[in-house]
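Cont'd.
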Amino acid sequence: MSFLKIENVTKSYGSTEVLHQVDITVEEGEFLVLVGPSGCGKSTLLNMIAGLEDITSGEFSIKGASMNGVHPSQRNIAMVFQSYALYPNMTVAQNITFGLEMHDVPKPEREAALKKVSEMLQIEQLLKRKPGQLSGGQRQRVAMGRALVRNPDVFLFDEPLSNLDAKLRVDMRTEIKKLHQKLGTTIVYVTHDQIEAMTLSTRIAVMNNGYVQQLGTPKEIYDTPANLFVASFMGSPSMNLIPVQVVVEEGNLFVETENDLGADIRIRFANPSANLSSYAGRNVILGVRPEAITDPEGADRNSNNIEIIKNVIGVTEPAGSDTYVTSAIGGVECIARMRADADVRTGQEFEFAINMDKVVSFDPESEKRIV
Amino acid sequence: MAAIPTDTAIRTSNATRFFLYLLLLVFALFYLLPFAIMVLNSLKPLSEIQGGNMMDLPDVWTLEPWFSAWSTAQIGVQPTGLKPYFWNSIKMVVPAVVISTVLGALNGYVLTKWRFRGDTILFGLMLFACFIPFQIVLIPMARLLGLAGLAGSTPGLVLVHVVYGLGFTTLYFRNYYQVFPTELVRAAQIDGAGFFRIFWRIMLPSSGPIIVVSVIWQFTNIWNDFLFGASFADLDSQPMTVALNNLVSTSTGVKEYNVHFAGAIIAALPTLLVYIVAGRYFVRGLMAGSVKG
């Protein structure tokens, strides 16, 4: 039995459907991240899980009990909001215990729960303050404390880190992950930041235009994106998408395109996906992660399918830990991620090594990955 | 001497500043002059006023007109002074202000956080209450009070003022709660608080500035109202404003100007007091939400 089950759920406002036939099941202890650009329906889905918005059609259950129409307070969930939503008129301690008070938990138990949670989050010294006197990171902790104290079945996070500055965001990200590992509670987490999604989750649901585009582990999503949207949304810098033509000669499969010198380049595809050969003579879109294009010395030594192509270096962007190299393949700017000390100069003719094991291909019409 | 404020939009030279203060001083004196005349004359024996020296300081200082206005002046038939009417006004104003403010807050809360189909139209209709002249509703209101058995009573006046004030208080609270973060209400819902608990525990405690605005506005309007008081009250429930009119416009006997001045000041005192106590919050509340932060 699944812990949290979303079956065929849709959401409409009037005649506009904003969520279409969403199917997601989450097992106990999982960390599911809903990720997508703004307006994709991820927050709506989270609000429906919380019970703050009605489900138009479909079934939603927690621990096998249907939650359709159940009041938010009866779902045994807790939610951390983007703005933290701390009650401005109450102290930190009152904020944290408000939910317990509303559920008629006796005072000694409330005190004990408050003590435990404030120790865990290291906010004991803040308990008597009002939210207005706290910094962003402290408010964030209090908001998490308010969620933790209820000991809920499911934690819901609605973009909890987006109001923090870059450094604090990374710290809190680690803390949330630690907390999840320590408590083992089921978490549903909404974000538009694909790095947060990759680092935190055990599974990711990538959403766009009200559809779940792909549901899978971070590795599945990153290595084998289901379609062009997922491929370009996940990963930074994003996946290079190069238009190529498929050629089959004597049982070998090649893709052909043009480099920046105007010369044809032909790349051998040693282990193409099964259906790719049926595209012989047609155009497909090749998806190559920046780290799969390197200088020959930096190529993955465990791969037997390194292909070398010649090209002109357009722009180099040293980023400290890596050097990003831009060059045009098939008329598209491609980004390659190279070692920090790779010897690259603008305008230089250079040999690029492509790890074909990591290359995926997409049908240009359906935009789906060719399997 | 106070430090020169640094958060000003326009820097002024000392000369401009001197001129500004001079102008402000002149206007302040101009506006204070009538009040000063009232205070001075309320502290004189009547003979000094009748002698024609209205602008002078009193030769003999006396509090007698004040005592007379408060407890012995002839109003209507009885020599009761303004005292019973003052309490009539208090008995009318306090419940009317409290009820209209609480109901306005509830309306604002529902119109912004528990929205329903047609809520903006309903709000628009409620706003009409702010534009209806008093005189138009006199006859229907009299009929209604008669049917409800509240004619000529303090509860009747309270009802009239609550109904009339609701448009304003709803407007205030609706606009205030409009920018109140909805996530707070959602968080409270998840925490298990219901409709009224969210209202009492989250919304109202965060509404200080707008409560002050609503209370001052309602208090001033209801305390100063003459028309409804004159139309719907009988002798036992007449508010202060009506009694003051009866005191001043008696057509028989000697016109005791000093007593009239004292009475007028007594009648204006409560609103003055409310402004002095809560005035700074009034400005703050009216500006709330207009600038982020």
